[in-house]
């Protein structure tokens, strides 16, 4: 009688888990920035990546100007309670003239400081007084109630941007503040990298699209396709142009056909589900039939199975099907990959040290990303169910605790927190 040889399900045949940092480094090494650029209106450049250095040809502000509504004065004229003649009025957008001794200029926020003035006294520290000029005509005077220091309330020429400075660099991802800064040095158009073209599909015969079947008529075993919705939204937030190929059945030929079509005119094919090695997981043989595939078991939780490869000239990334695994692997691996394809040079994700106000007693041999929420006391609370299928955890939470392998957490411990706000922009 022979002893049965171990089946392919046996634990002994499992490959070693790949550390997340190694997986990310290997992935980024494949992400050669795409070469295409285009010119867009600065209005439309939010989320895009700058493909040029922006050099300022002017000082911002262009002149010393007032930071307050008030009176421009010469400090040497002043002692406590000095009364000055108001000899000019300088609203924003106009220029004054040299300030004579013993006089003040009525000035408004943003207006250039007249030559000779060396401080602004805010109007709250002044008292308006009618004075009599020689010849009996009345004129405005101002009594300075608080003595200014030289330079007070003056915004210096060039204090924001100096002429000749590189204000924004190629590879910088643009957010609303960058758009304003570019506009402040006169750029109404920007040269940005072309969007990444992504083909997206979901695998799984159990998947049904919401709207196709009402909840009351869902067959046993059927589930709604949730991954498609958040993956498409995540891609769009990253400025990608998405071709959504919907749901591909769990069949080898259908998967091959979908991949083949998607490899044309796309930079990346992104799929969810079917990346394990069960006989219902068709991604691996299908990608291998057309190109190259690395199937990784990443030492992270949620999100162990992950596939990277190439189909024709397109990159291929296969995400796990469990919704939280799919979401977390997208945020930690696909997002930096896409940013690098777009030419972003800084793709590292920074975490923040914060106090845990919870207990995590089950240390795992994989690095974990726990869904947590900041509380009013400045600590973190843990969502009660950390299963990779529980999407509620990601909605309840406002970020992830990056918990090293083998680590338990006790209340009061300092943990590393990655806010979703840093990952979803
Ligand atoms: P798989 O990675 O295909 O083995 O799927 C793992 C789990 O994720 C299964 O419970 C699937 O039903 C579920 N799943 C796969 N794809 C999706 C999807 N697009 N939306 C929601 N759940 C999914
Ligand atoms: Mg599946």
Provide a descriptive summary of the structure in words:
The chain is α/β, with parallel strands linked by helices and 425 residues long. It folds into four domains: 14-35 and 195-341, 3-Layer(aba) Sandwich (Molybdenum Cofactor Biosythetic Enzyme, Chain A), CATH 3.40.980; 37-59 and 164-193, Molybdopterin biosynthesis moea protein, domain 2; 65-155, Molybdopterin biosynthesis moeA protein, domain 3 (Beta Complex), CATH 2.170.190; 352-423, Beta Barrel (Beta-clip), CATH 2.40.340. The chain has helices at residues 20-30, 176-184, 227-237, 252-263, 283-290, 323-341, 392-396, 420-423; strands at residues 37-41, 54-55, 65-66, 70-73, 83-90, 103-107, 119-122, 126-132, 138-144, 154-155, 166-168, 189-193, 197-203, 207-208, 223-224, 241-248, 268-272, 292-297, 300-301, 305-311, 314-319, 352-356, 367-374, 379-382, 399-403, 414-419. Strands 7-4-6-5-9-8 form a six-stranded mixed beta sheet, with no helix packed on it. The chain has a six-stranded mixed beta sheet with strand order 16-13-17-21-20-18, with helices on both faces. Strand 8 (126-132) and strand 9 (138-144) form a beta hairpin. The longest helix is centred in the C-terminal third of the chain and has 19 residues, at 323-341.
Write a concise synopsis of the structure shown.
Helix content is 19%, strand content 30%. The chain is of the alpha/beta class and 425 residues long.
């Amino acid at each position: 009688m022979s002893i049965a040889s171990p089946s392919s399900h046996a634990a002994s045949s499992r490959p070693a888990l790949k550390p997340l940092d190694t997986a990310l480094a290997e992935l980024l090494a494949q992400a050669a920035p795409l070469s295409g650029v285009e010119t867009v209106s600065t209005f439309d450049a939010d989320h895009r990546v700058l493909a040029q250095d922006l050099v300022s040809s002017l000082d911002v502000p262009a002149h010393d100007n007032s930071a307050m509504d008030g009176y421009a004065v010469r400090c040497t004229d002043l002692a406590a309670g000095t009364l000055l003649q108001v000899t000019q009025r300088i609203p924003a957008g106009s220029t004054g003239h040299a300030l004579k001794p013993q006089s003040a200029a009525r000035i408004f926020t943003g207006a250039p400081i007249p030559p000779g003035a060396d401080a602004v006294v805010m109007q709250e520290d002044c008292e308006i007084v009618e004075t009599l000029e020689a010849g009996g005509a009345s004129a405005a005077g101002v009594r300075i109630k608080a003595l200014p220091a030289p330079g007070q309330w003056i915004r210096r020429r060039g204090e924001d941007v100096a002429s000749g400075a590189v204000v924004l660099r190629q590879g910088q991802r643009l957010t609303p503040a960058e758009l304003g800064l570019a506009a402040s040095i006169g750029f109404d158009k920007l040269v940005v990298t072309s969007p990444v073209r992504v083909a997206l599909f979901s695998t799984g015969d159990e998947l049904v699209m919401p709207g196709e079947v009402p909840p009351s008529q869902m067959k046993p075993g059927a589930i709604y396709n949730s991954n498609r919705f958040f993956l498409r939204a995540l891609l769009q937030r990253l400025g990608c142009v998405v071709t959504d190929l919907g749901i591909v059945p769990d069949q080898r030929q259908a998967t091959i056909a979908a991949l083949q079509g998607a490899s044309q005119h796309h930079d990346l094919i992104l799929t969810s589900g079917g990346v394990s090695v069960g006989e219902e997981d068709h991604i691996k043989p299908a990608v291998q039939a057309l190109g190259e595939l690395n199937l990784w078991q990443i030492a992270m939780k949620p999100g162990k199975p992950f596939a990277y490869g190439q189909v024709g000239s397109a990159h291929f990334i296969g995400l796990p099907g469990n919704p939280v695994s799919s979401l977390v692997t997208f945020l930690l691996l696909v997002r930096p990959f896409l940013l690098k394809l777009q030419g972003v040079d800084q793709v590292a994700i920074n975490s923040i040290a914060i106090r845990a106000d919870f207990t995590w007693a089950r240390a795992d041999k994989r690095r974990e990303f726990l869904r947590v929420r900041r509380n009013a006391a400045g600590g973190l609370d843990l969502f009660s169910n950390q299963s990779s299928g529980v999407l509620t955890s990601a909605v309840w939470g406002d970020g992830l605790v990056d918990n090293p392998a083998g680590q338990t957490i006790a209340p009061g411990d300092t943990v590393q927190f990655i806010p979703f706000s840093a990952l979803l922009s």
